[in-house]
Design brief:
mainly alpha, 5 helices, signal, Aminotransferase-like plant mobile domain-containing protein
Length: about 130
């Protein structure tokens, strides 16, 4: 979830969005990282992080069980953004607006900085290393 070049890129984008100067490299670091860089607004950041983790997991499963390779981190980020937009609709009006804005910021940043495909140095083993 943290070691292949595709997921590193995804976590770098997330770090950029939240203003962190580093990204998590393991699940243990993920929890420390989230406490250090997301001390306020947990109510909105944690669903975002959950959406990212969920999409990475789904991409990994698609590769393992269906042979479908995710070619760009943008796919993961945009899908996570879609989840957040859906989850925002389940919130009260004020929270819905804030979570929706976060989802849009996530997608906008990914679309601004994404590569067209996954790096070739993975040897086709994106998300499995």
């Amino acid at each position: 979830m943290f070691h292949c070049s595709l997921t590193k890129y995804v976590w770098n984008l997330v770090a950029l969005i939240v203003g962190a100067d580093c990204r998590p490299n393991s699940l243990e670091q993920f929890w420390i990282w989230s406490k250090l860089f997301l001390p306020n607004g947990k109510q909105f950041h944690l669903p975002g992080l959950a959406a990212i983790c969920w999409e990475i997991w789904l991409a990994r499963n698609n590769l393992c069980f269906e042979g479908k390779l995710t070619r760009s981190p943008t796919e993961i980020i945009c899908s996570a953004s879609s989840f957040l937009t859906y989850w925002a609709g389940l919130q009260n009006e004020a929270d819905q607006k804030l979570l929706g804005e976060g989802a849009e910021a996530l997608k906008k940043t990914a679309l601004q900085f994404h590569p067209h495909e996954a790096p070739r140095d993975d040897g086709g083993m994106v998300l499995l290393q």
